[in-house]
């Protein structure tokens, strides 16, 4: 299975002997079926556990699905152009958004509102979908910590690269962004790897925020056993 490591950021305090794969972005059924998602959070957990994942998030739209997990997660954004943010470690939902195509100032305003909770980590999801975020935006945007540079059928590493070039120390992450947890082709393809175990939400989030991780894209053979690429995680 060809493997692409998109980014590796480590410090001397991190052990490379224990890779911990995580997925922070995915959807199951929610809001009585009004949003795009199939299956349940329990099914998602079991499926990713079978692959040896340390953690998988169900990031429902404006809804915390997994408050009792390692970290609470939801996806913010109700708008035409899929200008979405990933919120990690929060307790409250921010409902403010701009439904129509957003200006740079409006995007920054939403990030400013979200970042009032200083305990959370904020990610930018699938930045180039529907031209929601423009490449030029990342020269200026602030008040976020992660950018999803690798996700299904999309590579947005150039958005991350632009942020870095303009002085924004943002961490690159990769996620499956699954919407049908029963579909083998939607899971286990794009992931982020941590390099040591974290027993509380604060240290888990700090590891992501500080870039103590790698972003990986696995090129699956659809006819293969899905578990095969993950046999050596443990």
Tell me the layout of helices and strands.
Elements: E1 3-9, E2 20-23, H1 41-50, E3 55-56, E4 73-76, E5 85-88, H2 104-114, E6 121-124, E7 146-151, E8 154-155, H3 157-165, E9 171-174, E10 190-194, H4 201-209, E11 213-218
Parallel strand pairs: 2-3, 6-7, 7-9
Antiparallel strand pairs: 1-11, 2-10, 4-5, 5-6, 7-8, 10-11
What does this structure look like?
With 234 residues, this protein is of the alpha/beta class. It is built from four helices and eleven strands. The protein has helices at 41-50, 104-114, 157-165, 201-209, and strands at 3-9, 20-23, 55-56, 73-76, 85-88, 121-124, 146-151, 154-155, 171-174, 190-194, 213-218. Strands 4, 5, 6, 7, 8 and 9 form a six-stranded mixed beta sheet that branches. Helix 1 (41-50) links the parallel strand 2 and strand 3. The longest helix is centred in the middle third of the chain and has 11 residues, at 104-114. The protein is globular. The two termini are 18 Å apart. The model is unreliable at 8-13 (pLDDT under 50).
């Amino acid at each position: 299975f060809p493997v692409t490591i998109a980014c590796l950021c480590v410090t001397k305090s991190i052990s490379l002997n224990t890779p911990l794969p995580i997925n922070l972005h995915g959807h199951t059924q929610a809001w009585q079926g009004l949003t795009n998602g199939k299956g349940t959070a329990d099914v998602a957990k079991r499926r990713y556990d079978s692959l040896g994942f340390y953690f998988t998030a169900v990031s429902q739209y404006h809804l915390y699905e997994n408050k009792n997990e390692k970290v609470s997660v939801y996806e913010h954004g109700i708008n035409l152009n899929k200008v979405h943010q990933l919120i990690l470690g929060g307790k409250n939902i921010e409902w403010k958004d701009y439904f129509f195509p957003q200006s740079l100032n409006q995007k920054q305003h939403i990030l400013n509102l979200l970042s009032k909770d200083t305990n959370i980590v904020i990610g930018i999801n699938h930045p180039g979908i529907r031209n929601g975020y423009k490449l030029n935006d990342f020269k200026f945007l602030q008040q976020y910590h992660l950018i999803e540079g690798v996700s299904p059928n999309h590579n947005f590493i150039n958005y991350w690269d632009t942020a870095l070039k303009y002085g924004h120390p943002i961490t690159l992450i990769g996620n499956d962004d699954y919407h049908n947890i029963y579909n083998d082709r939607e899971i286990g393809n794009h992931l982020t790897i941590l390099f040591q175990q974290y027993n509380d939400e604060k240290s888990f989030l700090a590891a992501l925020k500080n870039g103590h991780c790698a972003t990986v894209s696995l090129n699956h053979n659809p006819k293969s056993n899905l578990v095969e690429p993950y046999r050596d995680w443990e």
